[in-house]
Design a protein that fits this description.
The chain is α/β, with parallel strands linked by helices and 314 residues long. It has 13 helices and 10 strands. It folds into 2 domains: 216 residues, Spore Coat Polysaccharide Biosynthesis Protein SpsA, Chain A (Alpha-Beta Complex), CATH 3.90.550.10; 89 residues, no CATH class.
């Protein structure tokens, strides 16, 4: 097998401690010495710059650092792709810890005729399997690998750039990541990997699920953070619908039913019932809270960014 030469593209924003651990871990991954690691610092205001300065001394022949003003992960990844020296890109996140042979497994799949190799993301061993984590897994709200019916012909909706290897020319031909999906008010971005996957498929790319290319995701989650995330995702769906109606429709992402404002009000009343979780159980009560957060986020985008009349009647 030829020597592995990936350009690892890793956006980071205000996760200095996790980033430090991840960079230390990367040095132990098989095949990393033949690669380049491009960290794109997306306007971090914590100790990220210091962590990167230290690691430029520790890994001078491996690490490259690009610093931008905060513009979201899509712009950060596009910048990394443009700077990459190698013809194969591995997108991972700053809280993702590859298993020792992950690079080899991705390389083998790309050598096998695939243009994109989607690796698995598992919870890191430090993440306790709480009722919330079990709920997230049951809904596929983080990574929906169990919902994939055709792993040999992966759709764009199952592309997760936390662990995704791809040919650089395919990314460029598809137009890269959509930077418009970054919501500056929420400091949140969603569906940019979905849109990239969709665009690559439209260009004829062959994408597959690679269950042998595994990494661990170290991202603790509590209920408040999760519901806030789902609020942001709801807003992201409304934005996606505005920018890419075909994708939103085909993936069934738009909220079903009419009178969304009424649904939000009713869910607010139900979720306020004192003994709700005790009566209907954790999973069902979390589903109601999840739905309410998502719909509130969806309405938030529609209210803050109304369609102008001339556009609505065009």
């Amino acid at each position: 097998m030829s020597e592995i030469r990936f350009s690892l593209v890793i956006p980071t924003f205000n996760r200095a401690l996790t980033l430090k651990r991840m960079l230390q871990h990367l040095r132990t991954v098989d095949g990393i010495d033949g690669c380049e690691v491009i960290i794109v610092n997306d306007g971090s205001t914590d100790a990220t710059a210091e962590v990167l300065a230290d690691h430029l001394q520790i890994m001078p022949n491996l690490l490259r650092v690009i610093t931008l003003g905060n513009g979201g992960p899509a712009r950060a990844r596009n910048t990394g792709v443009e700077a990459a020296k190698n013809e194969r890109i591995l997108f991972i996140d700053d809280d993702v810890f590859p298993h020792p042979d992950m690079l080899f497994q991705h390389w083998n799949m790309l050598d096998g005729g695939y243009d994109g190799s989607q690796g698995l993301l598992l919870w890191h061993q430090e993440i306790a399997m709480t009722p919330l984590i079990s709920y997230i897994d049951s809904r596929g709200s983080q990574f929906a690998f169990e919902q994939i019916n055709h792993p040999e012909d992966l759709g764009g909706e199952h592309i997760y750039t936390g662990n995704f290897a791809v040919r650089r020319d395919i990314v460029l031909r598809a137009g890269g990541f959509c930077e418009k999906l970054f919501d500056r008010k929420l400091a949140f971005s969603a569906f940019e990997d979905t849109v990239l996957g969709w665009s690559m498929k439209k260009k004829g790319a062959r994408l597959g699920l690679n269950r042998a290319a595994v990494a661990d995701h170290l991202h603790p989650m509590n209920e408040k953070e999760y519901l806030r995330r789902e609020y942001n995702v709801g807003s992201g769906v409304a934005q996606l619908e505005r920018l890419f109606p075909e994708i939103t429709q085909d993936l069934g992402l738009k909220p079903s039913g009419s009178f969304i404002r009424l649904q939000v009000g009713l869910l607010g009343v139900v979720n306020a019932l004192p003994a709700l979780r005790h009566v209907i159980g954790y999973q069902a009560s979390m589903r109601l809270r999840h739905r309410a957060s998502f719909l509130r986020g969806y309405r938030r985008y529609e209210k803050e960014y109304p369609v102008r009349k001339e556009h609505a009647t065009a």
